[in-house]
Design brief:
Elements (H helix, E strand, L loop, with lengths): L4 H13 L4 E2 L8 H6 L4 E5 L25 H16 L6 E4 L3 H10 L4 E3 L13 H14 L6 E5 L1 H8 L8 E6 L5 E8 L3
Parallel strand pairs: 2-5, 3-4, 3-5
Antiparallel strand pairs: 1-7, 2-6, 6-7
């Protein structure tokens, strides 16, 4: 059943007020969740709620005490996002995470499987000049990836925006396909309120 844009906006507003996840209309079938389950789409999500902006001046990637981290609401949000995956038939996935503590913690709290730290999804917020090359590296890794298991990337706003042109909220999932011509098709979005 297709929805008109107005119907979708009203539905999304109601679901958001209730604190339930919303999915943007897919640009084509199968649905975003089905495409992910079949290995025909990738889910890229921004880490759960970590209050603040950027990282402190004394930031060290291997020391969580120097970073902006998940709040209790963010941890709860990450667990609920994991539940949303399971409710949509994704019990296990290949999970790639940024090395930042807020991403690793989000990825682990999803409870979808082992979490692999992948440098190509690390934040380049402090070094925007690295964004283009890092995004190209991520595209290459996605093209070279073997297997059809669902793939979930837990990363940062800058990475998601660079790849998909979407500016996500904390905990938002962007479903996309990488086409043969290297273009990205965003086929759905899910937001879960913190």
């Amino acid at each position: 059943m297709s929805q008109t844009p107005g119907t979708y906006l009203v539905s999304a507003l109601i679901l958001t007020v209730l604190g339930l996840p919303t999915v943007a209309p897919a640009s084509d079938a199968p649905t975003a969740w089905t495409a992910l389950a079949q290995g025909k789409a990738i889910a890229m999500m921004r880490h759960a709620l970590a209050p603040g902006f950027g990282d402190p001046d004394n930031f060290v990637v291997d020391d969580c005490t120097t970073q902006r981290n998940l709040s209790d609401r963010g941890r709860d949000q990450a667990r609920r996002i994991g539940d949303v995956f399971r409710q949509n038939g994704i019990d296990k996935a290949v999970v790639w995470s940024s090395a930042w503590c807020r991403c690793l913690e989000t990825a682990r709290l999803l409870e979808l499987g082992a979490v692999s730290q992948v440098d190509a999804v690390n934040s380049f917020f402090r070094q925007p000049r690295l964004g283009r090359q890092q995004t190209q590296t991520l595209r290459r890794l996605l093209r070279e990836r073997a297997g059809s298991a669902p793939l979930v990337l837990v990363t940062h706003q800058v990475n998601i925006t660079a790849l998909t042109d979407v500016f996500p909220e904390s905990g938002e999932i962007v479903f996309f396909r990488l086409r043969d011509d290297d273009r990205i098709d965003v086929i759905g979005r899910v937001t879960t309120t913190p």
